[in-house]
Automatic annotation (TrEMBL):
Source species, domain of life: Bacteria
Organism from which the protein derives: Paraburkholderia edwinii
Record protein name field: DNMP kinase
Length: 232
């Protein structure tokens, strides 16, 4: 059964870079490992909608589209990505809750052609929380765990952001980088922000918590990852 290694931190701290270096270190040590994500289906839905989820700068850029166009894209993307992962009722609720929560991004509401202005990051935050977690707290996590539990070696998860997620993992690494500050006030940033500040909630076991001070270059991060591989 796979060991699940969670990685958290603020946007821009270097979570993905650390995950890549940790995977490399584990491979060198002879262990099978993979990088995956609780938010993998969320990113795939965003990408199918034309909201680029993988480029750090483009994730923050607002996109303009008509509400009807947005709703059509959302329905098609949910069906394409989640038809084999979620039951019909869950998909219908996910669509309805997400549409309802994204209503706040509509501007010029009384115009003939109102427009929705939303960035990929904003959309994914809404889909993940106001959409998915409103159905049930562990919607995305439970779906991922079903895939991971039968796998060997290590699964590195670079998007741990909520209590329910962290309760499922074997070790948690908090990546901290000087000068990186919180991007926005969305709930998905609350726990990474607290951990970055050194505030440990009671549900995070001390012996499973590790800090990575990402204050150098890639070679320095590789050294930290090599040390981390020994801990897990």
């Amino acid at each position: 059964m796979t060991k699940i290694i969670g990685i958290t931190g603020l946007a821009g701290a270097g979570k993905d870079s650390f995950a890549s270096q940790l995977q490399r270190a584990l491979t060198i040590n002879g262990f099978e490992s993979r990088i995956d994500s609780f938010a993998d289906p969320i990113r795939k839905i965003s990408q199918r909608m034309g909201l680029e989820p993988y480029d750090r700068e483009r994730k923050e850029v607002k996109h303009a589209m008509g509400p009807d166009d947005f709703n059509d894209r959302l329905y098609e993307a949910i069906e394409a990505v989640l038809a084999e992962r979620l039951e019909d009722n869950d998909r219908a609720l996910l669509y309805a809750y997400t549409v309802e929560a994204c209503d706040r991004f509509i501007i010029d509401r009384d115009a003939t052609y109102p427009t929705m202005h939303i960035s990929p990051r904003e959309f994914m935050q809404v889909l993940g929380t106001e959409g998915g977690q409103r159905i049930r707290k562990g919607l995305w996590v439970d779906s991922a765990l079903m895939r991971w539990r039968s796998m060997p070696g290590y699964t590195l998860v670079a998007d741990c952001r909520f209590e329910y997620e962290i309760r499922q993992i074997d070790h948690l690494f908090v990546v901290v980088r000087p000068g990186v500050v919180r991007v926005n006030e969305h709930a998905s940033e609350d726990l990474p922000d607290r951990l970055t500040k050194g505030l440990r909630p009671a549900f995070v076991q001390l012996d499973k918590l590790h800090y990575i001070e990402n204050d150098g270059g890639l070679s320095d991060l590789a050294t930290l990852a090599s040390d981390a591989a020994v801990l897990i």
